[in-house]
């Protein structure tokens, strides 16, 4: 059955409370002019956490080429599931990398016993739409002959949805399960939470989204399902979905709208709304809530991963 879940106690962990007390929402420092600096700074910021998570998760990583697209392959110490998980990293299609999302992808690989493939898709503005989707679809085509799952966070959630819509149109196999973390599935910047959570989400602002959408989509039609996949033609052939978000998430409304659209098409959806948490909180390995959410995602995928 489809369900909505709120964190059980309604209380934030001390780690989450500390983050909120030290990370006050402020005017965005992101701009096209300093984008290269921001990319480097974000990678430097997350690197210690990635190294910590790689040790604790007991996984190995390897740079591989899949259908001419560079990817990062994550393998658990013991592979217990024959499936692969296709994973889309976040960053508004203008920053982020496979490496930076290992704080989510590495424990997911360890918990499921499955190999995770993270395409290093090209970023805008150097490579605007449809470069990222083209790269992701090339990898998708290489994986979809056998059962697989798909996971994506923020822009990676957009990627996951867009790839499934392309695959449906092309007559390719769909994944057997899909998990989306705070998916950025509508680039029109018109959702309700982009007003009431602007300033409450300590990690993302509406101005950030406006800039990223402009650099990624350019003058193309924002409503195009290949750009804003919430507008896609879904039906009950699509797999079960798990969608996670938080009450402070700038994109909370997108998760709620997407879940409603999918359910109306007869698709099974679990929507998990975490009290007091923000956009892709799972990225922060110091939060107990992050570990709990990733465990939930792994358990969801394992329900559909065949032996």
In short:
With 307 residues, the chain is of the alpha/beta class.
Structural class computed from helices and strand pairing: alpha/beta
Cα-based radius of gyration, to the nearest Å: 18 Å
Report the CATH topology name.
Answer: Rossmann fold
Number of strands: 9
CATH architecture: 3-Layer(aba) Sandwich
Globally, the shape reads globular
Instruction: Please trace the helix and strand order, writing H or E for each element.
Output: EHHEEEHEHEHEHHEHEH
Kindly, what is the distance between the CA atoms of the first and last residues, rounded to a whole number of angstroms?
A: 23 Å
Low-confidence stretches: 1-9
Question: What is the class in the CATH system?
Answer: Alpha Beta
Taken as a percent bin, the fraction of beta residues is 15-25%
Which superfamily, in CATH terms, is the homologous superfamily?
Alpha/Beta hydrolase fold, catalytic domain
| Widest sheet, order of strands | 1-9-8-7-6-4-5-3-2
Mean pLDDT over the residues: 94
- State the helix count: 9
The main β sheet shows up as:
9 strands, mixed
Number of domains: 1
The helical percent reads 25-40%
Index terms:
307 residues; alpha/beta; Rossmann fold; 9 helices; disordered N terminus
Write structural notes for this entry.
The chain has a nine-stranded mixed sheet with strand order 1-9-8-7-6-4-5-3-2, sandwiched between helices. Helices cover 38% and strands 17% of the residues. It has 307 residues and is of the alpha/beta class. Helix 2 packs parallel to helix 3 (102-112) and helix 3 (102-112) packs across helix 9. The longest helix has 23 residues, at 35-57. The protein is globular and about 45 Å long. The chain is built from nine helices and nine strands. It starts with a strand and ends in a 5-residue tail after the last helix. Residues 1-9 have low confidence and may be disordered. The protein has a single domain, classed as Alpha/Beta hydrolase fold, catalytic domain (Rossmann fold). The protein has helices at 14-22, 35-57, 102-112, 131-143, 155-170, 193-196, 206-217, 252-264, 288-302; strands at 3-6, 59-66, 69-76, 84-88, 115-119, 148-153, 177-181, 241-246, 269-274.
